[in-house]
Amino acid sequence: MCSSSGSWRVTAMGCSLICRILRFRVRWSVLRAMSVQTAAPYSTVSQQLIEDWLVALRSLCRADQYTSLLRRSGLPLDGDAPKGRVTLDQIVCLYRIAAVETCDEMMGLWSRPIRPRALQHLLTSVREATSLSSALYRFSRFWNLLLDDYQFDLVRAEGTLTLGLLPLGKGPSQR
Question: DSSP assignment of 94-129, as one string?
Fold first, then answer.
């Protein structure tokens, strides 16, 4: 699915993955509606899966603020459970708290902050698309308005959609 030039080719496997991600959002809504006792066994991930996200978040916060974010979301402090599991509720809680307090919905993953509610508008736009190609077009155009360090390039050729993630240069970080 990924070529050496850094482009992502949307093939049958890629379409399947994107559809699974979109269905996950629907399943997540169903799980949230269930009681915590019922949903907890089905909605956990490895602590290591979110480690890159936590590293980026750590760079945005003071040490005491980072510790406070973890405690309020119910996540174990660094090193307490490196091979443990975290629930979807803990991840969602951390995201909601951290996105507001850091004023960055991507919590340090890009060179400049993504303002609050930007991702809500992105999801609304993509959700209302009538086809996968329309959804990818909307996604790529929206992100190109937000990102400074990368650009999504959507190309249709010979019945195949290619979504490329292309670096725009090595400009200085705005943080």
Answer: HHHHHHHHHT-TTTTSSSSPPPTTHHHHHHHHHHT-
Report the C-alpha gap between 96 and 105 in whole angstroms.
Answer: 9
Residue 44 in tokens: 């956990």
CA-CA distance, 31 to 36, in Å (whole number)? Answer: 8
pLDDT for 11 equals 41
Place of tokens 């994107």: 18
CA–CA distance, 72 with 74 (Å, rounded to integer):
5
Note the maximum CA span of the chain.
54
Q: What is the SS3 assignment for 88?
A: helix
Render pLDDT for 10-43 as a digit per residue (tens, 0 to 9): 444 444 444 444 444 444 444 455 444 454 456 8
Global model pTM greater than 0.85: no
Amino acid at 101: E
Low-confidence ranges of the chain (pLDDT < 70): 1-42, 78-82, 170-175
